[in-house]
Description:
Number of helices of chain B: 17
CATH class of chain A: Alpha Beta
Structural class of chain B: alpha/beta
Number of strands of chain A: 7
Low-confidence stretches of chain A: none
Order of helices and strands of chain A: HEHEHEEEHEHEH
Strand order of the largest sheet of chain B: 1-7-6-5-4-2-3
CATH class of the largest domain in chain B: Alpha Beta
Strand order of the largest sheet of chain A: 2-1-5-6-7
Low-confidence stretches of chain B: none
Shape of chain B: globular
Number of helices of chain A: 6
Number of strands of chain B: 14
Number of domains of chain A: 1
Helix content of chain B: 25-40%
CATH architecture of the largest domain in chain B: 3-Layer(aba) Sandwich
Mean pLDDT of chain A: 94
CATH architecture of chain A: 3-Layer(aba) Sandwich
Shape of chain A: globular
Mean pLDDT of chain B: 95
Distance between the termini of chain A: 27 Å
CATH topology of the largest domain in chain B: Aspartate Aminotransferase, domain 2
Helix content of chain A: 25-40%
Strand content of chain B: 5-15%
Number of domains of chain B: 2
CATH topology of chain A: Rossmann fold
Strand content of chain A: 15-25%
Oligomer: heterodimer
Amino acid sequence: MHNDSQALRRILRDCRTLAVVGLSAEWHRPSHFAAKYMQQHGYRIIPVNPRYAVLADGSPGQILGERCYASLADIPHPVDMVDVFRRTEDVLPVAQQAIAVGARCLWQQLGVENAQADALARAAGLASVTNRCVKIEHARLFGGLNWVGVDTRVISASRPV
Amino acid sequence: MSDHRFQPETLAIHAGQIPDAATGARALPIYQTTSFVFDSAEHAASLFNLQTFGNVYSRLSNPTVAALEERVAALEGGRAGLASASGMAAESMVLMTLLQQGDHVVAAGALYGGSVTLLAVNLARFGIETTFVDATRPEAFAAAMRPNTRVVFAESLGNPSLSLLDIEAVAEVAHAHGVPLVIDNTVPSPFLCNPIRFGADIVVHSATKYLGGHGTTLGGVMVEAGTFPWDNGKFPGMTDPSPGYHGVKFFETFGDFAFMMRARLENLRVHGAALSASSAWQILQGVETLPLRMERHCANALKVARFLQTHPAVSWVNYPGLPEHPQHALVCKQMRSLQGAPGGSGLLSFGVKGGLAAGVRFIEAAQFMSHLANIGDTRTLIIHPASTTHRQLAPDQQMAAGVKPDMVRMSVGLEHVDDILWDIDQALAKACA
């Protein structure tokens, strides 16, 4: 797992396109919060959720203005990070797909900690994060979380760029 | 590879504050503003929906205040902090976020008077019942737990009883019943004791005392550990859709800082006991030297305690840093070691021979020791609790709080210890003449 601050900064700097697996279209769900936040902070969000991939009339579904795909394999362009909002026990197939599509990072969200998926991803050369929220880590390291009293653990004499 | 863990002396200066992005200012700016602009309607909507972090209005959050919140959280080893206008406001904020009508609290009996009143009078009016127990006996806490108990509340080091709570043992009792342990850690400060290390879930401070350290500024801070399982079924307010925020479920959305967010958005926002930016700044000036000051408070207090022990005009002395303290083993376990001995705090109490009248004469004969109701100042402070801070309690309640009729409480300051001893000696001479 690559959960230390230096690794997380690198991942959040280098991964600009995030496939959000399990993204909900309901605005008050944590996955929607996180994806919307990342979109507002300059990342491209690709929704992956079979529930919203196809509308009743057969046309492609959308979340947050982006086409929603049923699986990672359906995405017609490369993604940097696979951000997983699924139960821990359902993560392994997602990890395998992430490796297959050439992602650079597997990111398991809060409460999602599949150790096998983590090991598999790392062995395949991906960065791998478990039990962290992309939104919270971005806000912690790049500003925002320091405004609500959370211990960001940032001790520095450098002005933020 | 994990992040470097910094020592308290470094955290006290740096945690929560990096150079200012806009100006490069090294020291913390005082953001003396009530409100903050929105970049767009979309940005405003995101802020109000909690989809992005940012500042809206200083009752909710303020960058200067946030620096204090993060600093105290870091010093306590907690996940997140929340500041308030006073220590009592912090306590009220925590309890009113956790409790609702029909709930029950198990609390230590020997609490600061204000805490007793909050529980026994104010919250009782809203249908919240409290059982007070002997804080030196963890089994007393266990015996008092009920199905509707939702909080266990105690002080790490009692004021003025100077009794320690066995935090680990009481945390086990609380957790066995699925409820959080809230600890008032004002007297030791985060430098001498970290209740979260021993299992506490929430810590509260009167920052007015040792954190600010100079007797200038009222303030309070609460810190959450981030490890309590709020989804155990006993805290629907943490897991159910919030009526105030379009159905956001706090624990699901914010995880290990969910309690702080709920306290901020459902209590601080509504009840309004916000800390001002300039107050937060002043308190932080004190926090920078917290480790240094606490070391000197403890060194001075130990010398004073030893001096009093052999003084002919003194009948008894109580100081946690003395090896004779009945809870010495617990002091060694829970309090930071300073030069090979546990720091006993800056507080001590003693009995003047001649009882209440001699105690009053002692206080009035002091030259630079100040007679006032406060602790944790650079100045040495003295008071007679039975006739002042605990005056509103009945005699049996006073005894339960550790207040004896002849007791003088001293908050030993940072003056040269020889001068402190001189003032004590000359005041005792006048008291017993």
